[in-house]
């Protein structure tokens, strides 16, 4: 294809004073600022941009609008870039995709010759014998499939997102959209107008509405300045309204920015996709839509060829022919598919300029240049019936074939919203039958083609949208002009050729017979046809294949096109990058009030849900030593652990005790003020879901703790139930307001006494399981005498803002006693020595309170708690497993890992849940589920550890350490 | 080229074997009516015809064949479940899958890739070890592996400890596979149709007729469809997302909530990822299809809904987490997103077998994980319908377990992994 630049006014988008040099497939080219890659290459006479998916046939520009897969190229680490959309930049290095060898010499092109051995769905038919063969074939098929390449070393870009709001969103900045925006704004609506191209005006920029070629420019000059001057309208160009989601939630993507737009009402004025004419070799570079040729000329000032044949079934083909003539392209012939001459000034003008017009004829074949790199000539033949042509034809030498056989609505967003279309046999178009609430359609997507009707339609759409958005509107505008939908679409622009290469779907290399063969095999529902043939599944998502394939399916199955239906389009409208969707990584991280103190003390932090908690203190190479030392300090002197991540719930109101009685298993009604009590929560199945402590601060006020990971669910659970019970109780999740530490060890009281003078800490005045309010070094605090680790201990909860002060005061006070902070690992070990379970570790999604040996925490006397009935039934029916403590039969055996299985006679009867080596006891201890008949203390059982080895274990009743609990009650 | 393709290529006419004979009109009666022409319904028909010679069978679907969740799923097949019931059941399915292409004479593109369930917390490590141990107990290749080994098997994965949720290890399941989901439905459908089963598309069951309903569930005698009534001896429902609605036709209340599950694919890319990667903590999974598309999804939507709407937040959340695992995918593009309706049970295990209603059987509760069960369901449903006895393999899946507090606890292995 030879082409060259045209003088202004052609080329409204390019700035000829700014040449830009870029590289395509190893060669430098120069274009102008404003060029796309494809337009700049076209200006340099480069027509081939890619190789097709299956047969590796040369492909070139077809829509010039970024709507087809022919222009997909690779730029560095970015695969699948649309060359007719992406602007050139200095130094850009562009390569071809999916070629073996080079774009010019792609040896995978042999597949084109083997095409008949690759029927539709060929991969379903073979490659699986003998069994296992697919494993090998798949490698080959996978290597052939796929377009662009991923660079596994590429950088992760983080992009920001922004929210937008408006009364009326107008999607599409063509004539209809401009009119709609203006009408809505006139009614006082706050309008956002979204246009994917860089220049407003849509077809006004390139289509030919009149013989002189002035109308489009004139209308644009009238409409656009008014839009730009309107304070009520914000214009986003180069922006894709990329989907419609419930309640007019529209992602608008402009470059690397995603706007999330919430609109009051929406006008879809997205236009329509020009549709291909199907004939042999209709995929060659140089075969393009009339709108593509016009875009090249008008937008980029590029002459699309030297000698053209135009196949048309509507006035737009004649408009394009005039543009070609004006651009100095020799138009060899017009094949007008309609039996009778289409009347109209454009056709007359073409005839007047001496172009031969053959009526009732089509291009029946493009004759390729060597290697299919372009067009040599076009065969034009008379149409003899639906899809058939005469045997005799005329051959016209040409390098360009321009087709204009009709349109299909750009209905993507309407489909997303659930709008429906029905095929009108008279206009041969899909036409809108139902629109969802708050959505309007205007312009050619709504079946309006006459430019005056389009503008009227836009005005009406904008008016309706403003009304929907609640604006005060004037009388409904009337539509006077005929919408001009007749004589636009040819009902059957499909001319199969006995030798094939008559493409229906360019992305997927599907020809007419592929569609027919799929149907003949029984895939005759349009959805099945699509899925079996993959028609419409490629990068352009059926933009150019859906209409013709549905027509073919309808005819082959003897149904109407409407009965055949159409496949719906799904979001997104245009391909969108992972990076833009992801935006900035927004993972909340929660840090406790003492976080920085832990870091200063050299803590190794680990994630606990969204929180960070100290795992242990010290360098990783001292891990086990540190854990051991931390545990020892707690047993021998005093340790301190940050427990701020525990949930804290304030349960207040006259029914607070009754409420706890119902959501937890224990009894709280008679719990005295100043006492703390264990909490166990079960669900309706009796399954344990959380635990904690209830502190009664006043008659009507409990402070309730919950597990770090459980508190969110506990809070929801409480609200859920109380929504039904309607008890007089107020529940607040105050987790983030409180910080907390646990001070534990024989010296804990001495440490606390040094900083807390307003609470009597004596054992008699402040016994085990009591709760007091006081101040610690001036910080108001709730002090609970409990101990997960089984030592004399105080859990101190204070306002989160005072976390560091609290920590510092205790560390200073503890110094003479050898205080050390301890982490989660030491705590896990210490609590295991006491046999305390951790919800989620020692319980699973089905553990009920009886299996976990928690019957002691269930009040039998109260009438109800969530899970009571289930537990009663399960207790009666008998349970199948029990959580027990164990020690090893042979202490020299390696310790099992957590989750190793308990095996009896080759059957699984349980698993270990917690295992640790206790330095205090000098042996390995653990918790495990076993069968109920293995649960008696002293029973021997076997655990299967690594490499299938079996080791002996003995059921040992916990607590392993200080079984009488004297230490914590000191 | 392969012989089969030569045959196609050299034949002047495309061998137009009609895989799905044009269905007859509805017959007034059938021995068995199968409600739902997804993979499960079609497989049931196939094995009834092939293994038991029962061909007077109708498969009724309100839409097109295989157009429900079968058409929408992401086709992950694995057997690394947590409960012995689950492991044995899915293992049989995996075995059947391996032979399907040959059984059907149609390539279902069963592709063994290796399946990684990543663990980002020590709690997850414990669950993965538990699954690995149970799997190995039943002879299934699963292993808990740590980052050194993950790096060798899937070097693309971001194993940095700087990540927000660093990877600590993974359950590596060698037999984890993907297949072409549509082909599975077509293979079963064509095989059933070839043996005389009637597949009626666009035929919706509106109600189920029963007799002897007085205080009991009664006995099923037929169904009423939008195309007329059908009498039959036995009915099985296999309608996935519509399970609750169809069961209500016989007065059954199922402990099932229907919740949308979404998925999406990227544009086709040259192969760079062989493995199937799942992260429960990040709620994402990904594999690369033989066409080169990245097939991706996450956990179910946060609400129940009988609808298949897509949402923007699904994609935003999914991609944010995907880029945590594969930071280099930032410039790769999404091509299409969609949703299915999943029938979720409280314990993430299915509901199969008999019901309180005589002659009425159920195949439901497939949630986000039922594609992989298609063959075993078909085979065992057929056995049950033919013999009148519930096979041992599926007895644990009875609806009664919800009354008897005998739930199966498959959540840890089924939630995001599908
Ligand atoms: C996005 C997504 C991803 C998934 N990924 C996986 C995965 O990776 N691995 C996996 O194993 N599983 C996966 N699943 C789950 C899996 O898709 C389903 O469990 C499985 O396909 C169920 O098959 P089915 O035949 O039971 O149901 P379906 O395929 O849904 O078939 C049910 C059929 O019943 C029909 N029907 C309903 N009501 C009526 C009526 N009244 N009358 C007549 N016909 C009726 C429907 O039209 C439908 O065709 C996924 C699901 C989704 C939605």
Topology (SSEs and partners):
The complex is a heterodimer of chains A (970) and B (418).
Chain A: E1 15-24, E2 27-33, H1 37-43, E3 48-51, E4 58-60, E5 72-75, E6 78-82, E7 93-95, H2 110-113, H3 122-125, H4 134-144, E8 161-171, H5 175-186, E9 191-195, H6 215-229, E10 233-237, E11 239-241, E12 249-254, E13 257-268, E14 272-274, E15 287-289, H7 290-300, E16 307-312, H8 315-326, E17 330-336, H9 345-352, E18 357-359, E19 361-368, E20 375-385, E21 388-397, E22 400-404, E23 407-409, H10 412-416, E24 420-424, E25 429-434, E26 439-441, H11 451-468, E27 503-505, E28 510-511, H12 512-520, H13 526-533, H14 546-557, H15 561-564, E29 576-577, H16 578-582, H17 595-600, E30 603-608, E31 611-617, H18 623-636, E32 639-642, E33 647-652, H19 656-663, E34 676-682, E35 688-698, E36 701-706, H20 711-725, E37 730-733, E38 738-744, H21 748-755, E39 771-776, E40 779-784, E41 793-799, H22 803-814, E42 820-821, H23 824-833, H24 868-877, E43 881-888, E44 901-904, E45 907-918, E46 923-931, E47 940-944, E48 950-955
Helix pairs in contact in A: 5-6, 5-11, 7-8, 8-9, 12-13, 12-14, 18-23, 21-22
Chain B: H1 3-10, E1 29-35, H2 39-52, E2 57-60, H3 69-72, E3 76-77, H4 84-104, E4 111-112, E5 115-119, H5 122-137, E6 142-146, H6 147-153, E7 169-173, E8 177-178, H7 181-194, E9 198-200, E10 205-211, E11 219-225, E12 228-237, H8 243-248, E13 257-266, E14 276-279, E15 284-288, E16 294-297, H9 312-325, E17 333-344, E18 351-354, E19 360-364, H10 374-387, H11 411-414
Helix pairs in contact in B: 2-7, 2-10, 4-10
Commentary on this structure:
- With 970 residues, chain A is of the alpha+beta class.
- Chain A folds into 6 domains: 1-154, Roll (Ubiquitin-like (UB roll)), CATH 3.10.20; 160-273 and 408-468, FAD/NAD(P)-binding domain, CATH 3.50.50.60; 276-405, FAD/NAD(P)-binding domain, CATH 3.50.50.60; 492-578, Arc Repressor Mutant, subunit A (Orthogonal Bundle); 646-873, Probable tRNA modification gtpase trme, domain 1 (Gyrase A, domain 2, 2-Layer Sandwich); 880-970, Aminomethyltransferase beta-barrel domains (Elongation Factor Tu (Ef-tu), domain 3, Beta Barrel).
- Helix content of chain A is 24%, strand content 29%.
- In chain A, the strands form 12 sheets. In chain A, strands 8, 9, 10, 11, 12, 13 and 26 form a 7-stranded mixed β-sheet that branches. A 6-stranded mixed β-sheet of chain A has the order 39-40-41-38-32-42.
- In chain A, helix 5 runs parallel beside helix 6 (215-229), helix 5 (175-186) runs parallel beside helix 11 (451-468) and helix 12 (512-520) crosses helix 13.
- With 418 residues, chain B is of the alpha+beta class.
- Chain B folds into 2 domains: 26-75 and 182-255 and 347-413, FAD/NAD(P)-binding domain, CATH 3.50.50.60; 113-174 and 258-344, D-Amino Acid Oxidase, Chain A, domain 2 (2-Layer Sandwich), CATH 3.30.9.10.
- In chain B, 29% of the residues lie in helices and 25% in strands.
- Chain B is built from 11 helices and 19 strands.
- In chain B, strands 1, 2, 9, 10, 11, 12, 18 and 19 form an 8-stranded mixed β-sheet that branches.
- In chain B, strand 11 (219-225) and strand 12 form a beta hairpin.
- In chain B, helix 2 (39-52) packs parallel to helix 7, helix 2 crosses helix 10 (374-387) and helix 4 (84-104) packs across helix 10.
- The longest helix of chain B is centred in the N-terminal third of the chain and has 21 residues, at 84-104.
- At the A-B interface, strand 6, helix 3, helix 4, helix 12 and helix 13 of A face helix 1, helix 4, strand 4, helix 5 and helix 7 of B.
- Strand 29 of chain A pairs antiparallel with strand 17 of chain B, so a sheet runs across the interface.
- The complex binds flavin-adenine dinucleotide (FAD).
- Flavin-adenine dinucleotide binds at residues 35-41, 60-63, 67-70, 72-76, 204-205, 238-242, 246, 261, 263, 297, 340, 342, 366, 368-372, 418 of chain B.
